[in-house]
Amino acid sequence: MNVRIALANVRVGKDSKESLDIALETIAQAGSLEAAIVCFPESFVPGYRIGNTRVECDINFLERAWSAVDQAARKARIAVILGTERQDGDRRVISARVTNSDGELLGFQDKVQLDPSEEGVYSPGSERRVFQCGDMTFGIVICHEGWRYPETVRSAARSGAQIVFHPHTELVEGAGVQPSGFADPLNSFHEKAALCRAAENTCYFATVNNAIHGASTTSAVVSPDGTLLAHHPYGQHGLLVSDIDLSKATGFLAHRLKSASSLHIAN
After folding, report:
1. What is the pLDDT of residue 11?
2. Cα dihedral 176, 180, 186, 190 sign
3. Which end of the chain has fewer CB atoms within 10 angstroms, the N or the C?
């Protein structure tokens, strides 16, 4: 069973409203390319607050933005994973909001494992789930937790996810390594981790970054055997569209993990 997915490797707007406008344009474009789902980077609307003074929004703006995204999804007949934030009481939580292709809200996946730099600005979520769109079952892990905590991806795969989406964002500070290709040995560990997340769980892994000048990571789709299926040019604004074969995402290796209760630790 083949499914077409789209990853929004798009530039960040100068403010929250422009980011929303970019999201709506991208949803329409992905729908015209007959993708079943499009995924945006972390906190794309209203924007990632760490190191960013341009993010100004309130719950009323977010609710209007989410409604506009739902309408765009319904019009384009495409499911949407929107990197966003939400209020949980007096707590601000990084989240991914999932809309089905009929414009109905499927739910949120909050970021459970925060990067240390995010503590004090955001609060952690507490639950993980998988989502169903048509024949595709998928999970979502957000930035730091997918890079540093393999258990997050394994949890989704063991719950039936054929693909795990990984919205992230990058703060570029100074001149770093300019990659010569995906998983460049001279680059940071991050893109190597993307290959591992797929291979160690026999599932697809789709990582999504913004279009940022000097970015060390880009949007990419990794096959269940850990090989690169497709990646987007570094720092370029656009859509990465890829067809995936769900029958290859068996979750075989994820399900082979023995529980701690079945292991004997020798003294």
Report:
1. 96
2. positive
3. C
